[in-house]
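User: My collaborator sent over this chain with a note saying "see what the structure looks like." That's all I know about it. Can you take a look?
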Amino acid sequence: MNFTHARRACICGLVAALIIVAATFVVHARSTDSTSPSVIRLAPPAPVVDEKVRLAELAGRRQRIARELGPKSVLILFSTEPRVYANDVDYEYRQENNLYYLTNLKQKGATLVLLPGNESLSEVLFLPRRNPAAETWTGHMYSPQEASQVSGVKEIWDASEFDSFVAALRNRQPFQLKPEKVLLSAGSTADARASVFEKLFAVAGKNDGDLFMLLPRVGDGLEYRQEEKFAAGWTRTPTGFNLKDATPIFVALRLRKSPFEIALLQHAIDITTEAHERSWLAAADARWEYEVDAQVAYTFKLRNADHWGYPSIVGCGPNATTLHYEESQGRVTPGELLLMDVGAEYEHYSADVTRTFPVNGKFSPAQADIYQIVYDAQEAAARASRPGARKSDVHRAATEVIKDGLLKLGLITDRNSMQYRLWFMHGTSHWLGMNVHDVGDLPGAAEPKLEPGMIFTNEPGIYIRPDALDNLPDTPQNQKLIAAIRPAFEKYKNIGVRIEDDMLVTPQGVTWMTQALPRKMSEIETFIARGRREARK
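Assistant: Without extra context I'll predict from the sequence alone. Here is the result:
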């Protein structure tokens, strides 16, 4: 696929991104909160965007998608199905990312259809008709006018007509839409609606039409069950339309963030920064990890985040050595480190920020040894981050520093082996955006090069798990290794350190979107000391 236009627009436009953001968004002065220590960086109110600018952004996204689809195609995007929590209780509803990317609609039951080859009717939204009885129980549904105001789509039809629409497309028959099923129209006539498939039928007759959908890969079935079911039914009989996966098109466009998206993600990061800092101060009086975790949940609600982007990780002491520790049921013990990996989600954009800090406010010499290695690795990763580099280059830069540090501490005996994986077992970076592990890498495709507008994480770590040596295979080589590193292991065991920041690629290198949150050991210690001293007054 040809994404030249999208790349060029992003690279040229990002140079002036700050100017564009300033002209587009009106950000109010920083919030005040007389009950919080002054050292805490309170998240500012959400950016306010001009409606014309927002709708132009959505229209531009749909146009770019349509351009990549081509005139012989149809795109169908379903909204997310509700997820069952237990019995008759659903999880909080969250819209499918790509549909939200094109419409900003949060309601279930909506379906977007793009028809790039039909100049008079190129986009249609199928929307459930409002039901006052249902709204009594489950809340307000979009009216057609509201859905149009939110999305910018001007042609809205009753969702009950979608099956007939698809049947007509499949069977190459004229589509007869009843007038009462048109919920909103920008002026399309009955003749225009009846002829919506004419060009498509011509290419279908040559088996040259394309039907694009989000086709689930292995492991994606739970999120895209209705797409999987639809695709299976579509391929049972010849239709003249080749079923194709729209995922690569969305991946290429979503990978490069616009100034509009960057501002939303920055707000999620600002909320997350406040949550971290509140938690650092609260840890002084906490007995349990869940008390610290409560500060995160409180801040997210206080600042009107949609939710967390992923379950919060709040682990003290040995729990900090478990990468995805989510229980928050352990003790908070003075003298130990507390690792917090948390991220607020705002308007579908998720922050992802990790800090590791001493509960008592002061790093011990052993803790400082490990922390400094991770900090230096993160600095090396940032220096390697520039347009033209790849995430693998960033990871390699961090890994080399960690190898040297582990060798110096006696935790490995050979820096040129895989021994370091005992203590650093994950990658340094992943894409960030509408998912905490956002789209960007496709199976079988070449690793993308960093370009302005891309956002990724920088998160090296070292985890000295208390049972790490016990779980090594019993071989002569491992016995020799264990004997050699045992003294260092006993000195550093139960220490887990991860530092994670969110990086925006610029023409010159990267911007640390999380730069407001203290990261150096001295900065963390100073912040905690000042904040706790102020809280005691």
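A starting point for your reply to your collaborator: The domain at 255-536 is CATH 3.90.230.10 (Creatine Amidinohydrolase).
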